[in-house]
């Protein structure tokens, strides 16, 4: 007589697995930190997503209210329609956040996003994407900018990987 | 999440499939040398990439890997007589050499040349590092021999085992690059297993259960770095190399031998989990070899006379609920290899990836799939040789080390990740 494990791991038994949606759509926030990665994010956003929101700029205004940075600034995300959205509010509503920077570009603004993620207990994923003419040192610099703040840091091949990753994460 | 057509693309390796074509670009472990120990020893049946094959060593010690079945009436040549430089079918006496060429058809006059017109499919079989390797692709594209360090050190410095794993190769291989499960599934073994315990690095694994990951592409595949907090403004890094399509290295611990795996498809619902241990600079001790033979570390105990694990799905993996409750093991299954295999087999013969819910720390798995798909498409559509075929790509080591927090591991561990003959592994 077959053991329970043997019976339960056949292809036939696999056909009885319950077919139902076992998760709700993720609220992903994808934030480009520089113009190079903003162009990529703009392209990626044209695919069909499960509610992912894409942002192509980060700006600040002087403020001292809730959700401001240590420097007394309020951070704003620029969406694809040109609207300024409150960073803290967007992060609070998210399930996870992805920041993208092109190799050699200044990715230090990730620290502001990371602070918002920390305040709301959200995971932050960092992607470094290639840029024409960028060197190994440029990649290293970008990684340095993101490393202290991300739970997962990836040197990605470009737009194709961003789409692959977001699809895999059901963004 | 992976769409069904992508999952099928990656999981199916039979002849003519895109991923099957890709696997056929590489030298793959086929048998242990011990399975064909001497000239004229019994032949061995095996199935690889959905093809039924037969391996034998002829009277002169030459190795052959041929179609399992006699061209005459389809009899399995496993019943054959291995004698006088060939394998003779016991049914009507047809005889084949190691290239699959039929050399005798007794019922036909020798002068007729009938035998010359019969040839079984064959693949090259070479011996290296205690392993018999085969290449199942087009002969004109045969790559140079494999150069993984474990198969280039003296035989007394290396040990290889294999075990049957009853699920698709991909879900098994993905376990090899999924560093985040170690602190849970294998936590008991870090302090108990003779091939793991005692290393200084173990404490970092146990103190920091939330490693942070960094994935970078390497020439042959990926480097997956997992970092944990350490003292003196340092990180403890464990770096796992993956060489396409199915080689994974486990970061070392102390001066214990280095280990890792190949995950070789048998068919779409079974694979061979190959497990090596070697030391770059010294012979393995008697205690170490005995522990490996006894199923410690990443090796397993067998059903006698087979390469099937003693703990397997037919006996519920010898599940020990009391041990699980007492914390002896985390899952109730004993041994690192079977802890992995039991869970991976429970996913079903071929994992349905449409239903999975990956998280950010699964990026190593996401990127490995991405690279496999990209490489397989490039090979099938443009004939581009995939990464990992070039033996230079094999010369990568796993590493475990402490680095200052502002140092990128690919730079800080650059030398540690290189194979250097005669130089000890970098390990904590």
How would you characterize the overall build of this protein?
The complex is a heterodimer of chains A (171) and B (428). With 171 residues, chain A is of the alpha/beta class. Chain A contains 7 helices and 7 strands; from the N terminus they run ααβαβββαβαβαβα. Chain A has a 7-stranded mixed sheet with strand order 4-3-2-1-5-6-7, with helices on both faces. In chain A, helix 5 links the parallel strand 5 and strand 6 (123-129). The mean pLDDT of chain A is 92. Chain B is globular, with a radius of gyration of 22 Å. In chain B, the strands form 4 sheets. In chain B, strands 12, 13, 14, 15, 16, 17, 18 and 19 form an 8-stranded antiparallel sheet that branches. In chain B, strands 2-3-4-9 form a 4-stranded antiparallel sheet, with no helix packed on it. In chain B, strands 5-6-7-8 form a 4-stranded antiparallel sheet, with no helix packed on it. In chain B, strand 16 (247-250) and strand 17 form a beta hairpin. Chain B has helices spanning 4-11, 18-23, 169-176, 182-185, 187-192, 202-207, 286-293, 321-326, 336-346, 363-382, 409-412; strands spanning 27-32, 44-48, 51-57, 63-67, 81-82, 87-88, 95-96, 102-104, 122-123, 125-128, 131-135, 158-165, 212-217, 221-230, 234-243, 247-250, 258-267, 270-278, 399-404. Chain B is α+β, with helices and mostly antiparallel strands. The relative contact order of chain B is 0.16. The longest helix of chain B has 20 residues, at 363-382. The A-B interface holds A 2-6, 8-11, 13-14, 17, 22-23, 96, 123, 125, 140, 143-144, 147-148, 150-157, 160-161, 164-165, 167-170 and B 1-2, 166-167, 210, 212-217, 269, 313-317, 342, 345-346, 348-350, 352, 355, 357-363, 366-367, 369-370, 374, 405-406, 408, 410-411. Strand 7 (152-155) of chain A pairs parallel with strand 13 (212-217) of chain B, so a sheet runs across the interface.
State which percent range the strand residues of chain B make up.
15-25%
Averaged pLDDT of chain B: 95
Strand order of the largest sheet of chain A: 4-3-2-1-5-6-7
What's the count of strands of chain B?
19
Rg value of chain A? 19 Å
The total beta strand count of chain A reads: 7
What is the ordering of alpha helices and beta strands of chain A? HHEHEEEHEHEHEH
Structural class of chain A: alpha/beta
Major beta sheet summary of chain B = 8 strands, antiparallel
Radius of gyration of chain B, rounded? 22 Å
The total count of helices of chain B amounts to 11
Oligomer classification: heterodimer
């Amino acid at each position: 007589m077959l053991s329970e494990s043997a019976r339960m791991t056949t292809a036939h038994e696999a056909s009885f697995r319950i077919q139902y949606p076992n998760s709700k759509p993720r609220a992903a926030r994808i934030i480009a930190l520089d113009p190079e990665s903003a162009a990529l994010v703009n392209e990626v956003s044209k695919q069909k997503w499960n509610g992912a929101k894409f942002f192509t700029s980060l700006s600040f205004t002087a403020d001292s209210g809730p959700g401001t940075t240590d420097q007394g600034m309020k951070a704003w995300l620029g969406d694809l329609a040109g609207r300024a959205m409150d960073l803290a509010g967007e992060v609070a509503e998210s399930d996870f956040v992805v920041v993208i920077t092109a190799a050699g570009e200044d990715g230090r603004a990730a620290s502001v996003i990371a602070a918002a993620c920390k305040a709301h207990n959200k995971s932050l994923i960092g992607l470094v994407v290639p840029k024409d003419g960028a060197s190994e040192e440029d990649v290293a610099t970008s990684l340095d900018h993101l490393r202290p703040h991300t739970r997962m840091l990836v040197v990605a091949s470009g737009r194709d990987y961003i789409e692959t990753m977001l699809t895999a994460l059901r963004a | 999440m992976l769409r069904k057509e992508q999952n099928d693309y990656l999981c199916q390796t039979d002849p003519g499939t895109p991923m099957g074509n890709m696997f056929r670009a590489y030298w793959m472990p086929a048998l242990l040398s011990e399975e064909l120990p001497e000239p004229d020893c019994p032949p061995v049946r095996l199935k690889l990439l959905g093809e039924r094959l037969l391996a034998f060593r002829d009277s002169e010690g030459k190795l052959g890997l041929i179609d399992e079945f006699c061209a005459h009436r389809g009899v399995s040549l496993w019943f054959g007589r291995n004698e006088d430089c060939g394998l003779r079918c016991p049914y009507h006496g047809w005889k084949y050499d190691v290239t699959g060429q039929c050399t005798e058809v007794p019922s036909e006059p020798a002068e007729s040349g009938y035998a010359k017109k019969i040839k079984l499919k064959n693949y090259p079989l070479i011996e290296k590092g205690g392993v018999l390797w085969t290449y199942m692709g087009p002969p004109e594209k045969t790559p140079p021999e494999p150069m993984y360090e474990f198969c280039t050190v003296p035989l007394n410095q290396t040990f290889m085992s294999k075990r049957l794993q009853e699920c698709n190769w991909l879900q098994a291989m993905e376990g090899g690059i999924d560093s985040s499960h170690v602190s849970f599934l294998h936590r008991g073994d870090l302090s108990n297993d003779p091939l793991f315990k005692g290393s200084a690095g173990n404490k970092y694994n146990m103190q920091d259960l939330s490693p942070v990951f960094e994935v970078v592409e390497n020439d042959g595949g990926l480097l997956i770095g997992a970092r944990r907090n350490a003292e003196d403004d340092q990180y403890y890094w464990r770096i796992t190399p993956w060489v396409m399509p199915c080689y994974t290295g486990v970061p070392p611990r102390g001066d214990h031998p280095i280990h890792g795996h190949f995950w070789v498809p048998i068919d779409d619902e079974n694979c061979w989990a190959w497990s090596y241990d070697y030391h770059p600079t010294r012979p393995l001790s008697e205690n170490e070899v005995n522990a490996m033979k006894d199923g410690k570390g990443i090796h397993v105990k067998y059903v006698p006379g087979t390469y099937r694990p003693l703990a397997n799905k037919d006996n519920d993996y010898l599940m020990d609920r009391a041990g699980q409750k007492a914390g002896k093991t985390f899952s109730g299954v004993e041994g690192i290899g079977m802890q992995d295999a039991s869970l991976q087999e429970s996913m079903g013969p071929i994992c349905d990836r449409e239903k999975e819910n990956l998280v950010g720390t699964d990026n190593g798995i996401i990127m490995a799939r991405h690279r496999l798909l990209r490489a397989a498409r490039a090979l099938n559509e443009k004939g581009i040789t995939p990464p990992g075929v070039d033996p230079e790509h094999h010369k990568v080591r796993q590493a475990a080390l402490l680095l200052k927090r502002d140092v990128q591991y690919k730079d800080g561990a650059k030398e540690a990740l290189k194979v250097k003959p005669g130089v000890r592994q970098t390990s904590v």
